[in-house]
Every structure is written in C-alpha cells, then in structure tokens.
Amino acid sequence: MSPDPGLTLNHMVQYSQTRLDASFAALSDATRRGVLERLGRSDASITELADKFHMTLTGMKKHVGVLEQAGLVTTEKVGRVRTCRLGELRLEDEAAWIAGHRRLWDARFDGLDAVVDELKRKEKSDE
Predict the structure, then answer these.
(1) What angle is formed at CA 92 by the lines to CA 22 and CA 19, rounded to 5 degrees?
(2) Among 61, 73, 58, 59, which Cα is nearest to 27's?
(3) pLDDT in tens, 101-112
(4) Helix (H, G, I), strand (E, B), or coil: what is residue 52?
(5) Distances (CA, A) of 24 to 40, 59, 102, 107, 122
(6) Would you state the torsion angle of the CA atoms of residues 23, 24, 25, 27, taken in this order, to the nearest 10 degrees?
(7) How far apart are CA 114 and CA 106, in angstroms?
(8) Can you tell me the distance from the alpha carbon of 10 to that of 46, in angstroms, rounded to the nearest whole number?
(9) Is the CB of residue 67 less than 8 Å from the CB of residue 26?
(10) What is the pTM of this model?
(11) Per-residue pLDDT tens over the stretch 53-91
(12) Neighbours of 41 (CB within 10 A)
C-alpha cells in the first residue's frame, strides 16, 4: 500500500513551519542577531562572542544553542575551544515567507489607497 500523499505534504508543511518557527524565534533576540552579524565576518569562539556581547560563557552558550538548533550556526569543539560559524541555512524559506506576506500587505494597502483616493475625488466633486 502506498503512503497517503496528503500525509507526506502535511508532514512537509509541518516541518517547514517548525523550521520557520525555530528560525524566527532565534532571530527574535537582538543578541542572537548580533552573533549572526559577527559570524558573518569570521568564525569566533564562544569566549570571543561572550566578551564582545559582555555576557557570561553560560549565557552565550545558550544563545549559540538556540542558533544551532535553528540551523543558523554550527559549532566545533577542538580541545577546550568551541568555534562557531554560520550554518548551512541561508534563510531562503524565511525570506520567501516574508516576501509572500509583504505582497499580501502591499496589495491590501494598494486597495486602501484606491478607496481613499475615490473618497477624496467624491469629496472634491461635492464641493
């Protein structure tokens, strides 16, 4: 018996939503966004990141863990040093989600603009 294609699609949608949720949750924090900006310039150790953001190592490890769970950062431990670098995730799905919603809002605002323009024309013609 072949699998139900609806279940496969539903699983893919749920996976995509879960991944988007993790990405947006990770990006919701200013420190984590700052860490991503910093790692965009070069790899850094947890200690370097903690120093830059004036945090404890434990606090930075938690932030890096959230970024790592979202696929935005990878870490590698060599000896006593854990080095962080940008992950494989390039935020294409997140950008596509934002772009889709931007188009939706643009269309709604364009419609509102048309209503306002029509009301202004009617107001001028009534004067």
Answers:
(1) 20
(2) 73
(3) 899 898 889 889
(4) helix
(5) 18, 20, 16, 24, 44
(6) 90
(7) 12
(8) 38
(9) yes
(10) 0.71
(11) 999 999 999 999 999 999 999 999 999 999 999 998 778
(12) 7
Residue that wins the pLDDT comparison between 23 and 12: 23
Stated length of the chain: 127
- What is the full DSSP assignment across 16-28? HHHHHHHHHHHHT
CB half-sphere exposure, 70, CA atoms < 13 A: 26
CA dihedral (24, 28, 30, 32) positive or negative: negative
Q: Which two tokens stand for residue 118?
A: 């029509």
Rounded CA gap, 10 and 20, in Å? 15
Most confidently modeled range among 10-14, 17-21, 38-42, 116-120: 38-42
CA nearest neighbour of 76 among 44, 102, 110: 44
